[in-house]
Structures are given as structure tokens and as C-alpha cells.
């Protein structure tokens, strides 16, 4: 079990597949080129471990189907990009940017999301302590104030997207932001670091909460991993 946790946490941290590079084209020149492919990271907990806040069925589908699809399509787009660059095909290089942003963003965001969650038995929902706890109180009055703000913004987000608690390295303040589709937080500003990201796509809650996104948002805080968020915050602040 300990070994599995070590391995899964390591793969979550990198998201990179330790495989031979994909070779494109032919001949000796192409053998020195290649792109690194990305792999679906394992979850550091079982699919059913977040119940009753998030059902095992949702977690399995979300991870095995949705996240996997982003990874697959991201790798495909990167391989096509490598080929287009090799050929000097500027038009295709530009055309691929939206697929890279969407699928690459999906992979980046979900890799953070899995780490933002943890079972109650492992500290899920335990309020942030130390410097992040102080910062939350300073910026939002209290943890309840932050939760209320994120839930309101997440519920109001039209269509699909994410609601984030981020740390702005420039202003050294905590911020709440939303992003559309699979845009990562950094697309809002390059100085933003995600601490907690909540997926508000319907695939994250519909099987359990139907169309009632506010109930999903209310319950997800029971399994938020504040220990992870605090580690990221402390690292950025040090
Ligand atoms: Fe998702």
C-alpha cells in the first residue's frame, strides 16, 4: 500500500510518462526528435473513498474516461504539432493551439483537482492551519467567507469551467477566480498559482447531484485537501 501511494503520488506530481519518445517521420534525423507523452496519473485514494460527498461512480468515470480523454487528445495534438513544426507547416501549427489549450488544460486542471481532494479519514475538509489559515482569514474574513464566495462564483459560472482559490505571486494576495472550459488558472494571469481548483463541469457532479450544482459545491468542501493547498502556499511564499 505504501509503495502504491509513493508511486501514485510520484506520477501525480510529474504526469509524464517514462516511455521512449514518440518518433516522427523517418530516417536518422527524425530519431533524434520526438515529443514526450503524458500519462493519466493514478489517484492517491480509491474511487469510493470520497463518498458520500462524491460518489465512486462519478470518480471512476471522471478519472478513467474524462481525464483520460484529455490526456489522449493532448498527446495526439502534441504529436501533430511536432510533425507540423518538422514540416514547417505554419498553418497547422497555429490551428493546433486550441486543441492543445483545451486538452492540455484539461490534463493540468484535473491533475491538480485529484490532489485537491482527500478522504475525510485522511484529513479531508479539515480547515487550513498555519500561514494559509491566517491568509484566508485576512482576505475573506473567515474560511466560511471564502467558501461562500467560491460557491457563489462557481454556481454563477455559465456553462463549464472551474472556480479557483489562487495565490497571486505579484500582489502576494489570495484571489478567487473562475475560468471557462478547461482554461488553467494561469491563463487569467501568469503570476497566479492554483491552491484549490473545483471542477464545475456537469461531468463532475451530474450523476449524483443532477442539475443542482450548488449542492455539489456545498458538499465538496467536506473532502477538500487543505494540507496540500497549504504546502503549495508555503512553498510559493517562502
Ligand atoms: Fe472534470
UniProtKB/TrEMBL annotation:
Superkingdom in the source lineage: Eukaryota
Presence of keyword Manganese: yes
Transmembrane segments: none
A matching Pfam family: Sod_Fe_C
Entry's EC annotation: 1.15.1.1
Taxon lineage: Eukaryota, Viridiplantae, Streptophyta, Embryophyta, Tracheophyta
Assembly and interaction partners: Homotetramer.
Location(s) in or outside the cell: Mitochondrion matrix
Positions of the Manganese/iron superoxide dismutase N-terminal domain: 37-117
PANTHER family linked to this entry: SUPEROXIDE DISMUTASE 2, SUPEROXIDE DISMUTASE [MN], MITOCHONDRIAL
Domain spans labelled Manganese/iron superoxide dismutase C-terminal: 128-231
Substrates-to-products reaction catalysed: 2 superoxide + 2 H(+) = H2O2 + O2
GO annotation, cellular component aspect: mitochondrial matrix
Family: Belongs to the iron/manganese superoxide dismutase family.
Keywords for the protein's UniProt record, in alphabetical order: Manganese, Metal-binding, Mitochondrion, Oxidoreductase
Function: Destroys superoxide anion radicals which are normally produced within the cells and which are toxic to biological systems.
Gene Ontology MF terms in the entry: manganese ion binding; superoxide dismutase activity
Name of the protein: Superoxide dismutase
Keyword Manganese recorded: yes
Names of required cofactors: Mn(2+)
Residues holding Mn(2+): 62, 110, 199, 203
